[in-house]
């Protein structure tokens, strides 16, 4: 990724506006995308950030000028672009671009891109080539000198009903029981979708921070951060709600709170959804990331499924899901992927499925996850800024050389009673640590502190 703009990452595009990403660069990225994938018709969507409308307009105008038809779905979540891409193949949709920086601060923006059929675009599947193009002055000069031929069409599509119908089709709506649910979009894009779903669901929604607002008046919408969880938890307890749900800005991740306001790690939701989908698809393959694995493997094997570990990251998981025809893939970071959703991740389908499970099993969420939480306690992901990540990983590998080592993503080392994963960030000098044990909270604390002391020196 050395010969690409600084805003290009391994999986998407993300950077500060305007120093790392501006309208001119957005236009060239759009042109590089349609050239890379020979696209003639694309979907474009955007999140609530103040810079998103301008970046979107610049990109749309640029590709239209060179004969590409644009279907602009406006303010939306990333998964709405995915849905429009995989459901629109017969209508000639060749890919999609979502203008978003997800949970990054307000002065950031970026893009998530998919090819025809919502196949992911990453460093290994075209993103590096696109980055090289926009760094090539000769290519840009040639583009600017090219005489426009046919001007592409522009259609603004406001109708979200096909997407809403797909969400509702992922569950048995008639089996749902009335519930009181706290929903916290964090002033991101999830609020309008909750409004559209409401009339079809027997739920009473208690809304927080529901209006999309790119100024982030209530802070960055990233419930993965422990300091961002209290407000939703407090609301669940104050209203006596059955469930709490929060999303990040572009709502491709959703986070759960049980009826006591307790935050439920995404790891346990992976096991819950895997078991549910295996009831519908006996013997199916379930993908999971390598950070935390023991609960998922136990649940999947007990349900007759095939657990398969794969590298962390949406592009890797989506490609592996297609290759193995997996029915579901889950990451502990709250990304959940579904075969019936074009092998893409959704932040709406998981909570609908959880509500269906609570309804059919007549159980609270706490009762559904308590045993797994006790059997496999976890540290939660702990991030540490370090001067030399590779040196630290080498030191860890040396200290724990007698454990079972796996290099699927970063380094995972397992012992009979505990295991851990340490992996590098793709964008900053940060190491991410996850620890789990077999039912031993004291051992969890001991090993976590031992590792942190080694990592932080």
What is the structure about, briefly put?
With 457 residues, the protein is α/β, with parallel strands linked by helices.
Report on the structure:
With 457 residues, the chain is of the alpha/beta class. It folds into four domains: 13-159, Alpha-D-Glucose-1,6-Bisphosphate, subunit A, domain 3 (Alpha-D-Glucose-1,6-Bisphosphate, Chain A, domain 3, 3-Layer(aba) Sandwich); 178-264, Alpha-D-Glucose-1,6-Bisphosphate, Chain A, domain 3; 266-366, Alpha-D-Glucose-1,6-Bisphosphate, Chain A, domain 3; 382-456, TATA-Binding Protein (2-Layer Sandwich), CATH 3.30.310.50. Helices cover 37% and strands 21% of the residues. The chain has 15 helices and 21 strands. The protein has helices at residues 23-36, 52-65, 78-87, 127-135, 137-145, 161-168, 191-198, 230-239, 266-280, 294-302, 314-324, 349-361, 365-375, 389-399, 441-456, and strands spanning 13-16, 41-46, 69-75, 95-99, 108-115, 154-156, 179-184, 203-207, 243-247, 254-257, 263-264, 285-288, 306-309, 328-330, 336-338, 344-345, 382-385, 404-406, 411-414, 418-424, 430-437. The chain has a six-stranded mixed beta sheet, with helices on both faces. Strand 10 (254-257) and strand 11 form a beta hairpin. The longest helix has 16 residues, at 441-456. It is globular.
């Amino acid at each position: 990724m050395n010969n690409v703009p600084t805003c290009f990452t391994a999986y998407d595009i993300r950077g500060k506006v305007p120093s790392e990403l501006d309208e001119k660069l957005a236009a060239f990225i759009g042109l590089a995308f349609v050239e890379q994938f020979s696209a003639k018709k694309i979907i474009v969507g955007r999140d609530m950030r103040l810079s998103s409308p301008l970046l979107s307009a610049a990109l749309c105008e640029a590709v239209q000028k060179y004969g590409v038809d644009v279907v602009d779905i406006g303010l939306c979540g990333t998964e709405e672009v995915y849905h429009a891409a995989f459901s629109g193949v017969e209508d000639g949709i060749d890919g999609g671009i979502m203008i978003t920086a997800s949970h990054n601060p307000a002065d950031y923006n970026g893009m998530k891109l998919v090819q025809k059929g919502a196949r992911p675009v990453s460093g290994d599947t075209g993103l590096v080539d696109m980055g090289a193009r926009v760094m090539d002055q000769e290519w840009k000069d040639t583009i600017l000198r090219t005489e426009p031929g046919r001007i592409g069409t522009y259609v603004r599509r406001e109708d979200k009903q096909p997407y809403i119908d797909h969400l509702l089709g992922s569950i048995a709506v008639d089996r749902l029981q009335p519930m009181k649910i706290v929903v916290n979009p964090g002033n991101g894009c999830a609020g309008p979708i909750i409004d559209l779903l409401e009339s079809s669901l027997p739920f009473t929604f208690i809304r927080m921070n529901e209006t999309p607002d790119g100024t982030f008046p209530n802070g960055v919408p990233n419930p993965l951060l422990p300091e961002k969880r209290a407000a939703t938890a407090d609301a669940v307890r104050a209203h006596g709600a059955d469930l709490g749900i929060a999303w990040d800005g572009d709502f491709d991740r959703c986070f759960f709170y049980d009826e006591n306001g307790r935050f439920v790690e995404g790891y346990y939701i992976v096991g819950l959804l895997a078991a549910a989908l295996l009831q519908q698809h006996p013997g199916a393959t379930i993908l999971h990331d390598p950070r935390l694995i023991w609960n998922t493997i136990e649940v999947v094997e007990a349900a007759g499924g095939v657990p398969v570990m794969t590298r962390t990251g949406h592009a890797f998981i989506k490609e592996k899901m297609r290759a193995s025809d997996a029915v579901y893939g889950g990451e502990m970071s709250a990304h959940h992927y579904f075969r019936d959703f074009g092998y893409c991740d959704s932040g709406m389908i998981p909570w609908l499925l959880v509500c269906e499970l609570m309804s059919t099993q007549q159980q609270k969420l706490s009762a559904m996850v308590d045993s797994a939480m006790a059997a496999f306690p976890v540290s939660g992901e702990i991030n540490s800024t370090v001067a030399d990540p590779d040196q630290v990983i080498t030191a860890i590998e040396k200290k724990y050389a007698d454990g079972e080592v796996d290099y699927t993503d970063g380094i995972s080392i397992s012992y009979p009673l505990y295991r851990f994963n340490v992996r590098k960030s793709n964008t900053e000098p940060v190491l991410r640590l996850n620890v789990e044990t077999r039912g031993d909270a004291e051992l969890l604390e001991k090993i976590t502190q031992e590792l942190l002391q080694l990592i932080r020196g």
